[in-house]
Structures are given as C-alpha cells and as structure tokens.
Amino acid sequence: MIDILKASSKEAEKYFENLKKRAGSIQQDVEKAVLEILKNVKENKDKAVLDYTRKFDCKTIESLIVTKEEIKGAYEKVDDEFIEALKLAKSNIIEFHEKQKNKAWIMTKDNGVVMGQLVRGLERVGIYVPGGTAAYPSSVLMNAIPAKVAKVEKIVMVTPPGKDGNINPVILVAADIAGVDEIYKVGGAQAIAALAYGTETIKKVDKIVGPGNIFVAIAKKNVYGLVDIDMIAGPSEILVLADETGDAKFIAADLMSQAEHDKLASAILVTTSKELATKVQDEIEEQIKSLSRKEIIEESLKNFGMIFVVDSLEEGIKLANDIAPEHFELIAKDPFLHLGKIKNAGSIFLGSYSPEPLGDYMAGPNHVLPTSGSARFFSPLSVETFIKKSSYIYYSEAALKDVKDKIIKIADEEGLTAHANSIKVRF
C-alpha cells in the first residue's frame, strides 16, 4: 500500500515528479464552463445564481438568504458537546490570532515631517464553505475568526444547500459561533461570481477566501484582480520527519489522517530508522481496517504516499524544505533543537503529542495553509489576510524646501517634467 525507498534513489526522483503532476492540468472544458458561469452571473445576477442553484443543488429553492430562524433551528439539530467543542476551539483561535494584529504607527522629525501607517480591516469579505458530504465546521472558524479579529466590517458566507434546500446544521452553528454576518445558499463558481460582481441579494466583497472544488478554484483565479483571494488550494499533504524515537502507531495514524481527505492527498514519512519505516507500514495495514474512508486512504497512499529512509535528520530536513509541505510533523528526541532549520512549511507540529488534527481543530494556529510546495513563498491564512495598510505623509514648507532640488533632479532624470513642475511651482 505504501512503499519504502531510499531518499537518494532513482525511484524517489520518479515519485517527486509524479507528486508535482498529481493535480493534473486544468481541463479546458472546465475553464470554459466557469467563464460562462461568471459571465452569466455578472449580467443576470440573482436570476443566474438561482438558476444554477436549482440546477446543481436544490430544484425548488426560492430564496438564497439564510434566515435567523434557520440558524436558531440548526442549534436544535446538533448536540451540546459539539457546540462546547466549537466554543473552546474559537477561544484558542482568537487567542493565537490576537498576537498577529498589526498596529498603526506614526513618526515625526524636527523639521516638520510627519509620516505613518494606518491599518484597517477590509470592509466586506466572502467566505466559501463546501457543502454536501464535505461539511467542515472547523474551516468556518478558521476563515471567519481571523477576519473578525482583523475587524472586518461584514463577513459573508456562501455554501451550497442540500437537495432539501437546507444548509448542513453544523455549518450554520459554526458560522453563528464564529460571528459570520450574512449567509447565502449558493455554491460553486456561481457563488464566487456573486461575491465578486454582486447581485441584487448578495453585495460584492473585497476579498474571497475558503476552499472548494476545481470549479471554485478556477472561478477564484479568474476574478482575482477585481477582488483579492487567499490562495488557490491544492490537495492536502503531510510530511512526518521522525528519528528512531518515533512511535509507529502514532505516525501511521497521522499519515492516514491526511490521506483520507482526497485520493490526490499525499502522506510522506521521512525517517532515519529502517526499523521504524517497516513498523509504520505494518501499522497502516492494521489501523486502516477500522477506518470509514478506507478506499480513499488506500488510493491516496498507493499513488502519492511514500516512506523515505535517510541517513540523518539533517538530510531529512533538507528533503522537507525542498518539498515545502502543507503540514510538517517533526518527531525527534529534541524537536526544538531543529525548529530553526525548517525553512518551508505551512504549519509545524513538534513532538509525538502534537498530531496534525490538533491543528485542524483545536490548538489555535490557522489550518488554511499553502499547498503544492507554495509554502516556499506563501503563509497560512492570518489576520494579515484581512487587513489593508495605508501610509500617510505630511511635510511642512521648510521640510519640502530642504529636498526640492533632489526631487526635481530625479524627476528630470526620469523625463517626468510634470512631476518636477509640481515641486517647482511651490517655490
């Protein structure tokens, strides 16, 4: 099900080539269909959105708006223990993200110069939440709470309804707990179009965040520039780096916790111990028997899972930095000793008792993370995602007079005489 390779082998090179291609090329017919949906919603607004929602989700839907009564009713359909778990997660997420807040600042100089920076939350942010079987209330918290901490004025959520026209109650409860302001029953590329262009019912937003299928991803890509987006998310991935102290039972469970997401998900173990590698293989075979998403896990591990044996933790860290995984577990005698060497990872989990699902649900750091190697240049979703900054400048007459000739010189060199003139006319 999952093979063991020497990290420096030819077979390893082939695996990494296959890993890079796993998402495949975007099919032209999908791109064409998305562009048609975007155009239709832009021109026909609510009518187009309702038509698509009736076609793909619920044939009898009459209104896109989720009412307060529906939210209240959702609480009656979930148990109190689940609600308490969400509230604890919310508290931890707020605590972590409060530390990320940017502050406005001001600087003054003796010659009458005042400069500074303003920091503001965005006015309207749209959150896309998948529906159907992929109901992830944790993602609602992870997307909405940083926006709330950033003081976004309006948080708007879109999610597809079921065939009965209702939203999954766990999603509605999570949205209410997270402080979402508006919720609409629409999914797919049409939801992205409604957020980007605006309709009679759904006002346009400034930024769109949240995961979705290939139609959602392509739609986000195509509206970028008109609105901002968080990222184009790829399949989920985990890399576990372990020395001989690693527990095979724990590691096998952690690898499968990501493999169950998607047949394209990748789960990789890099270890200095051949004995541990073999034990993890055996543990996977044993534990998978009782897991509900067994078929997805098997397919994922068969095509994109791998165990690599390396000669040292240093070699393993180099390999991990090259892969730049979404989730990186470091299980070693002293994980903090190696933390500073990790350059490229979405989120880092240290030690045997910090499994990846802890980050997904409860710890506090965000679980919306860069994938497909983009951790080399992207960061996790954060408060920073939902703010904008403006600089400001004040110069007195004397202060401008001190530098006027230098400004004119640079402007003249660039051939921008009107720039130079703007300074000259003042003196």
UniProtKB/TrEMBL annotation:
Pathway assigned in UniProt: Amino-acid biosynthesis; L-histidine biosynthesis; L-histidine from 5-phospho-alpha-D-ribose 1-diphosphate: step 9/9
Chain sites annotated for binding Zn(2+): 258, 261, 360, 419
Example of a GO MF term: zinc ion binding
Protein's recorded name: Histidinol dehydrogenase
Cellular component, GO, one term: cytosol
One Pfam family named in its UniProt record: Histidinol_dh
Enzyme nomenclature, EC number: 1.1.1.23
